[in-house]
Amino acid sequence: MANAFDVIVIGGGPGGYVAAIRAAQLGLKTACIDRFTGKDGKAAPGGTCLNIGCIPSKALLDSSKHFHHVNHEFADHGIAVKDAQIDVGKMLARKDDIVKKLTGGVTQLFKGNKVEFHHGTGRLLAGRQVEVQPADGSGTVTLEAKNVILASGSVPIEIPNVEFNGDTIVDNVGALDFTDVPGKLGVIGAGVIGLELGSVWSRLGSDVILLEALEDFLPAADATIAKQAAREFKKQGLDIRLGTRVKSAAVKKKKVEVTIEGEDGESTLTFDRLLVAVGRKPYTEGLLADDSGVELTERGQIRVDEESRTTAEGVWAVGDCVRGPMLAHKASEEGIAVAELIAGKPAHIHFDTVPWVIYTDPEIAWVGKTEQELKEAGVEFRTGTFPYAANGRALAGGQQAGVVKMMADAESDEILGVHIFGASASELIAECVVAMEFRGASEDIARIVHAHPTLSEAVHEAALHVDGRAIHRGNR
């Protein structure tokens, strides 16, 4: 049958499109359904990540970082630049061009791997049938498959009494398309999205205030790293107010008035624009027919087992719509694993060594356990640290803010967690992920020759410090 497949994937984000391509590589007749439409009106597979998340935000982070360096750091290198200006329209056009290239690349990958692509939304019916509503509004089409992979992703969380209007009160999508630099920008939430987008507009000239309901800054990160990061971000001009709850927001005379409650009681702040970045939730609206057989958890996630099987036979789910961290690379690895399991091959999804990254400047990256988690679990461990300020490459590049922290089991020396705050942390963490995946010890990294001068030497020195034998810093 023309509409019969071995695998149908609903969702074309990092979990979905990767799963579809891998399934096709394994010889399975595969279709992928994705709803995203680009600014040119054409299909734009790639999900939130490529269209309105990871990729466009990193493009703006890079642009704003260059602008900041011109205004605040080039002088230290003997480079004089007067009256540097930012062309916001050109910056946004560059961002959009990058997105278009990458989503177009996914389209070409589908063609090259013979994945049948459907631009529209998919709804799972009973018996692994999938109803497709084309994006162009034409009649629905019903497909059927031996296996269905749900990769529907996530959407921003809204909060009571703060309604998005797409202009002055926005989610992360709106904050990617401000046509000018807000004089004063409020950000509800000092997590990953809030910090990254807040950093973008702060570097470009906005007065940014981040309102965080939690008492602790970045509680998911290691406390030592979070403390150093908070101190550095404060130097950069980010005003992070912890223990501050937002009660309501209203637009008055083209300004956003935000009522907050903190330790000093209730008060009001006024902003030119307000970004709501309090997290994301699984997107399952319209995804499942009542008789699909797929169950949701109390948190609204699709219920799956350790191999990503749902409660319906032959139906799998991956990415943000299931348990585990909402990370693009986690979704991709799940998608690959599921495709291989469907093809009868062995596959394993290992969450213990999934790296986390916050793309501020400096960056924050970690893998494994935090110090607080190890202490709560009663695990005996040793710690090694090394500051960027003692690294030659960091100093030469004017990137001396930061630290590497490594923790290893007190008896076996197996690496239990590595946490990095500093330049290129997103790249440096990969070495640590590899070591932990092979259950390596701090001694293993300590004995590996690292090129000089490189930032990676900071990881090497932290590993040496675990055993009290760092060369370029004092030891215990």
UniProtKB/TrEMBL annotation:
**Residues bound to NAD(+):** G189, A190, G191, V192, I193, G194, L195, E196, E212, G279
Q: Per the UniProt entry, what species is this protein from, by scientific name?
A: Elongatibacter sediminis
Q: How is the cofactor bound?
A: Binds 1 FAD per subunit.
Could you tell me which Pfam families the record lists for this protein? Answer: Pyr_redox_2 (PF07992), Pyr_redox_dim (PF02852)
Name under which the protein is recorded: Dihydrolipoyl dehydrogenase
Against SUPFAM superfamilies, the record matches this protein to: FAD/NAD(P)-binding domain, FAD/NAD-linked reductases, dimerisation (C-terminal) domain
Gene of this entry: lpdA
Pyridine nucleotide-disulphide oxidoreductase dimerisation domain residues are 354-463
Q: Which reaction does it catalyse?
A: N(6)-[(R)-dihydrolipoyl]-L-lysyl-[protein] + NAD(+) = N(6)-[(R)-lipoyl]-L-lysyl-[protein] + NADH + H(+)
Q: Is Secreted found in the keyword set?
A: no
| Gene Ontology biological-process entries | 2-oxoglutarate metabolic process
Q: What does UniProt list as catalytic? A: H452 (proton acceptor)
Question: Cross-referenced PROSITE patterns, in alphabetical order?
Answer: PYRIDINE_REDOX_1
List, for all copies, the residue spans of the domain called FAD/NAD(P)-binding. Answer: 5-335
- Domain of life, per lineage: Bacteria
- What family is this protein classified in? Belongs to the class-I pyridine nucleotide-disulfide oxidoreductase family.
Q: Which residues bind FAD?
A: K58, G122, D320, M326, L327, A328, H329
Also noted in the record is: The active site is a redox-active disulfide bond.
S-S bonds: C49-C54
- State the needed cofactors, names only: FAD
